Hints:
Number of strands: 12
Helix content: 10-25%
Oligomer: single chain
Radius of gyration: 18 Å
Strand order of the largest sheet: 1-2-3-5-6-10-11-12
Strand content: over 45%
Structural class: alpha+beta
Order of helices and strands: HHEEEHEEEEEEEEE
Amino acid sequence: MNKTMRLGLTALLAWGFLTACSDFESDETAEAMNALSSQYAVYDGEWTINKQVVDTARLEVTNVLKVRLPEKYLGTFCFGDEYTGGDNTLSIGEYKGLPISIPYRYEGYSANALFSTIASTEKSFDGVMLFNNVSFTVAIDGVDHRVDLLSGEPGNAVYRNDNDQWTIGLTVTSFYVTNLETREEQARTLNTPIVLYYNTKNRIR
Length: 205
């Protein structure tokens, strides 16, 4: 993976772990994590790449992170000219536009933040085990296709308790497309990885 891209994704965790306490089982840590797990919150936020906004979405926080992926944006990379029209929509299909549930697990904390990794599954791709961080579904010619976003590393999520905001970071190196009717599978590898960030802007409730 491109070293710069990797550093960009892991920067969120790196600075926190340098100052994080080593005793993850302390009462203080447990209380903070339990409080966050038990809260229900809704935010408005933005998906960005290279600091450019590519989509907006609402985040719902419970024991999972529920948010809609920037499907149309990702589709331009996954499908290219094969299915994509000039307006970045599938010319012979439709995006579902449904929120997905992203499980996460706590890894550490600092004075101002809690750090988590996305609870990814693994998928073998060209003899290499990659992380399947998230997926979305798109209909092509009326048939649903699942699009898995694969990466050499798990995604991460950071909650900052000093401003009550979330950031999610995801790297995409390949797309794995499965026809849910025929189970036919196709892999599409990117020449350059995509690094996506989701940042909340304000809390609704």
